[in-house]
Amino acid sequence: MNERHVALITAFHEALSHADFAAMERCYHPEVSFGDPIFQEVEGRERVMAMWRLLLGVRDRLHVTYGDVTADDFSGSAHRTARYTFAKTGREVVNEIDAQFRFDGDLIVRHHEEFDFKRWSKMALGRPAGLLFGWTPMWRKTIRDRALQELNQFRP
């Protein structure tokens, strides 16, 4: 167990729970990459932070709990529950997320998250779209394309 890296993952989640972008950014390496089922791959600290600003802007009343934080000298993991109102639909979402981290020095250089896309889609988008289409590759591509387009147009 690497206590510095456990503290880094903890600091990131504390900053996320308070939407403290400056503190989140201090956790990331300049060449950080981020991946998840929606954004897939985002490269570089500036772009990753823009993604977080965008995400937190479309969520209302974000409440984050996290646990199961582990880390060694090279990698770490944590489980997070994010509860929020998806602003575009006004629907309540409870997203269970498993995060993996890799470190370069004492900073996060790789951050990857996994969650159940179909479950998220059903909660965030509701019926019929999320329930009927949330599992289809075409629907996932549509959501991913929209997210990437929003990120490309986003200016904090």
Topology:
Layout (H helix, E strand, L loop, with lengths): L2 H15 L3 H7 E8 L6 E2 L1 H13 L1 E13 L3 E12 L4 E14 L2 E8 L2 H9 L3 H5 L3 H17 L3
Parallel strand pairs: 1-6
Antiparallel strand pairs: 1-2, 3-4, 4-5, 5-6
Helix pairs in contact: 1-2
Explain briefly what this protein structure is.
By secondary structure, the chain is an alpha+beta fold. The chain has helices at residues 3-17, 21-27, 45-57, 117-125, 129-133, 137-153, and strands at residues 28-35, 42-43, 59-71, 75-86, 91-104, 107-114.
Trace the largest sheet across and list its strands: 2-1-6-5-4-3
Structural class: alpha+beta
Extended strand count:
6
CATH class: Alpha Beta
- Content of β-strand: 35-45%
Please, how many domains?
Answer: 1
The CATH architecture category equals Roll
CATH topological fold name: Nuclear Transport Factor 2, Chain: A
Account of the protein in words:
The chain has 156 residues and is an alpha+beta fold. The chain has a single domain, classed as Nuclear Transport Factor 2, Chain: A (Roll). It is 42% helix and 37% strand. It is built from 6 helices and 6 strands, in the order H-H-E-E-H-E-E-E-E-H-H-H. The protein has helices at residues 3-17, 21-27, 45-57, 117-125, 129-133, 137-153; strands spanning 28-35, 42-43, 59-71, 75-86, 91-104, 107-114. Strands 2-1-6-5-4-3 form a 6-stranded mixed sheet. The longest helix has 17 residues, at 137-153. It comes from Nonomuraea glycinis. GO terms for molecular function: isomerase activity.
